Amino acid sequence: MIIALIGLVIGIVLGLYLPIEYPTTYSLYISVAILAALDSVFGALRSNMENKFNTEIFVSGFFGNAILAGILAYIGDRIGVPLYYAAIFAFGNRLFQNFAMIRRYLIVERKKLS
Amino acid sequence: MKKIYNNGIMLIIFMILGFVLTIQLMNMNEDYSFVSLKTMSDLQNEVNKEKAELENLLGLLRDKKNRLEEYQKASENEVSIVEVLHSEINKLKLYSGFVDLEGSGIIVKLSDAEREMYEWEDPVNLIIHEEDVVAILNELRFAGAEAISINGQRIISNTKIKCAGPTITIDEHTYGQPFIIKAIGDPATLEAAVKSPESHGYMLSEFYGIIVESQTSPRVRIPKHTGSVSTQYIKLKEGE
User: Would you identify the CATH topology of the domain B101-222?
Assistant: First the structure.
């Protein structure tokens, strides 16, 4: 957990200080990819609480989902169907579901302690 | 060992997440809305068009500046201002149709149709009307014709073409068919203006059977305008 936070902080600092710019064209695709990545992170958090965490699954899901979501948004843009809605919907849905589970586990754990 | 490996992967992944997140946030500070690829290419086209127009205008500006410089140079030594004005006059004569011209171009011959009439067909369909001539004239101008004559009559800026029964009156002269239109310009473009499937000439020959013959030539001679040009109402605007 602490390692994850450290990684996040390092990443943010790097992002703040590295002057990387990409054309706004790709902004949408990257947004969707970030959403997918966040979904993976919440999923990992949840499976961690269920003691089912598996690094391989997390890594493959993190990159796979992000790339797939980005490509999906791009293809949708190309063929004129806003497919990125599908990605937003699916990953948003799962994100909230994961968060709900996490919340439940946390509350149950606290009740156990008290 | 396994734990260190896992921790390393976690570190890297969260680094990537934070990194991408921050970059996205940094790049999002301008107000952003979803733009489809098509809109983008449309806008790109528009921008390019505007740029081309700007280029055009700049060229015009350069032109005028050069002209001004010429005048200034001439006004410094008084002798040559006459020369400059002379060359200007010659140029204007060239444009307005008061000198004989020669250049590459096209000769179009329009004659009435010679086919059999259909039953109940109006014979009006078979003859050339002044509007056909005007339409072809206009299409030749679209194709970049720089000087045009019809049956040896130079077409100038205020030439009028009038229907006169089976004949056509151009300015004060009346001509019967065939009408021979000569135009100076890029021969290929001019020929396309007469023959392409969208053109009036094509329509005439395809649907009405009117004979449209065109022939490009490296040397088309166009005579000067012979009539007089009288003006009554136009006046020079003061201060121009």
Answer: Alpha-Beta Plaits (3.30.70)
